[in-house]
Amino acid sequence: MAASVKLSETDIFQAKEHACSRLGLNALKKQQSEALDAYLRGHDVFICLPTGFGKSVVFQAVPMCWDFLNGNNVAADDSNIPKSLAIVVVPLKSLAMNQLERCQAIGLEAAIAIAEISDEVLECAGQGKYSVLFASPEALLSVKGTELLQLQSVYSRVCGLFIDESHCVTKWGQSAGKTAAFRKLYGNIGQLRSRLQMDTPLIAMTATASSTVRKAVADSLSLKNVFLIHTSPILHNMKHTVLKTKSIRSKDVLGWLCLKISEKGVNTERVIVYCQSRKTCSELYSMFKCHVPADGHAYFNMYHTNTQPEVQEDILKSFSDPNGTVRVLFATIAFGLGVDIKGLHHVIMYGSPTDIDDYVQLSGRAGRDGQQSYSILVKYPSASGVPIKEEMKSFLNTDSCRRDIIHTAFPGQHQTAPFNKAHNCCDNCARTCSCEGDHCASPTNFVEQSIKDGLYSGPKGSEVLLRDVPNEVQDKIREELLQFQSQVKGTSSAEQQDDHIYAGQDIVCGLSSATINQIVSELTMAFTFTQFCERWQFPNHEIAQGIWEICNKFCSQMPVKMPDVLCDSSSSDSESDEDEVSDEYRELVIVYSDSD
Questions:
Q1: Which residues pair with 301 in a beta bridge?
Q2: CA–CA separation, 155 vs 100, rounded Å?
Q3: pTM exceeding the 0.85 threshold for the entire prediction
Q4: Tell me: the pLDDT tens digits for 92-104?
Q5: pLDDT score for 93
Q6: d(CA 160, CA 173)
Q7: How far is CA 477 from CA 267, 488, 490, 512, 544, in A?
Q8: pLDDT tens digits, residue range 314-334?
Q9: Which residues 6+ apart lie within 8 Å of 378 measured at CB?
Q10: Nearest 5 degrees, angle CA 250-CA 583-CA 304?
Q11: ∠183-185-187 over CA atoms, to 5°?
Q12: Contact predicate 356/389, CB 8 Å
């Protein structure tokens, strides 16, 4: 539709001015204007701009531009005049709802089709009532989606296909080794081009995509004659820190944060703790429920794809306000897509992302106001069953500047950084900082130091005796522990009936199946009761005592020996002990199968 018409410079200028006026803007930003210029000249466009920059202005403006160029100076209340239609592919219903509200706020008629394309959407789209349609790949590539695009009244008015969060095309739409594609149809979006008019432009949009990801996305979508609009996602005000440990206990890493919430409440420094699975999210949330007094529970929450929609909405509203009630959030990567987060200066990654794109995306949720911010990654075994990619391994393992690794992955112009003070760059640079001539005068950030204190000065170095526990004994202990878990579940189910926890009862009760398996795997360590309680941080003494008695029923008379080295109660240092990362993505399928 767009490329088949040759537009003059005057046409393009006037169309943009019209859209700008209808959107209530004094002027378009430079990159927004460039994107519209390229689109109106028939280019495919790849837009890589930070969240909150205003990428949505482009797909809002496009149908307005074409209505103006076609002589249809329509407004939202001109329901009898068919409107040009921009189709926007979105990955999540929450994101679609957020964009729908923005369109409605500026008087732009829009609709969403996530689980499927309803008869109402099909009818109204056919009548030309919508300027924007937000839809999932699954809906657009369904039988109803084909029917929609075959309607002549729709086919003739589609003015552009927009792929929001376009990094999902390769992240979710392509298989990786033996791992099947999480959402296969994301890899088939390029097929939609054959169902549109020839030369209808395709616009890919994302906040974070390395050069490798951009090329993969462009190939998958068959982009041609591409105009790239790119601003580096690397924040000059972000310090990057990596902390490694062979074993991890939630209370060691985050116990200080429980105390802060208890002491400061709504005045607690805002922190997001990004987890590599929903299970870890729920376990951390449950730990805080146990250790923070009830009057402080409003100040922390969790967000993943199975969190109740109304809770998700409350969290999103809270994070749109720098003084919002939620001060600590346990989240998967699902939180933050398309959200302009306010008042956040600390991100903790509880386990390593699998690639550098995800790391930059997650760390970039903080520091959007320009204030000094901190990304602290805690790497430990069993955090992920998905192999870590080479660029991310380089970032984790380098002894030199970590920011240089990110610059290599995201080539191009970067924001100039005030790194005359190296302590604001990364933990490696901070070690060599001499901002005061012969030494560094900057103290370590409180959040970073608190995590270090928990990881490296806890009871893990205490000497623990060892013993041999036959496999058949381990199986008997596991069986009795699972029976004990069932008893605890029955008690906690009644107590938590009206409580705000969206997780399985095995996690809510304070004794998850994963914890039982880990306890059994460590039966060779002859802990004292004090060491045992320090190791596992059970929510109450009764659970700790019950588990201790079961274990010692079988093991107390077994011979023990001194370890060859001081035992650190650690897991093995592999990177593939447990498959947790894909758990979050699999769960999204449930969202799309539910009625909307």
A1: 329
A2: 22
A3: no
A4: 887 888 899 899 9
A5: 84
A6: 21
A7: 45, 16, 20, 15, 15
A8: 998 999 899 999 999 999 988
A9: 243, 244, 245, 248, 253, 348, 349, 350, 351, 451, 455
A10: 70
A11: 95
A12: yes
> Which of 224, 84, 69 has its CA nearest to residue 155?
84
Tens digit of each residue's pLDDT (9 = 90 or more) over 332-379: 988 887 777 899 999 999 999 988 999 999 999 999 888 999 999 999
| Structure-block tokens of residue 9 | 């410079």
User: What does the pLDDT look like over 523-557, one tens digit per residue?
Assistant: 887 777 777 777 777 778 788 888 988 988 888 77
Please compute, for residue 54, the number of CA atoms within 13 A of its CA located in the half-sphere on the CB side: 15
- Residues contacting 494, CB < 8 A, separation 6+: none
- Write the DSSP assignment of 205-247 as a string of letters: EES---HHHHHHHHHHHT--SEEEEE-----TTEEEEEEE-SS
Q: Give the separation between CA 349 and CA 363, rounded to whole angstroms.
A: 8
Band of residue 582 on the pLDDT scale cut at 50, 70, 90: very low
Residue 372 to residue 192: CA distance in whole angstroms: 43
Render 451-519 in DSSP notation, one character per residue. HHHHHHSSGGGS--EEE---HHHHHHHHHHHHHHHHHHHHHHHHHTTTS---S-HHHHTT--HHHHHHH
User: Do residues 39 and 195 make contact, with C-beta atoms less than 8 angstroms apart?
Assistant: no
With cut-offs at 50, 70 and 90, classify the pLDDT of residue 306.
confident
Q: What is the residue type of 174?
A: Q
Cα of 10 vs its chain's centroid, Å: 42
Q: Average pLDDT in the 171-193 region?
A: 78
Radius of gyration of the chain (CA): 27
- Contacts for 559 with CB less than 8 Å, ≥ 6 apart: 467, 468
Domains, the chain, in order of start with CATH, read 9-230 (3.40.50.300), 238-459 (3.40.50.300), 464-565 (no CATH)
Look at residue 319 in the predicted model and tell me its pLDDT: 93
Residue with tokens 């210029």: 37
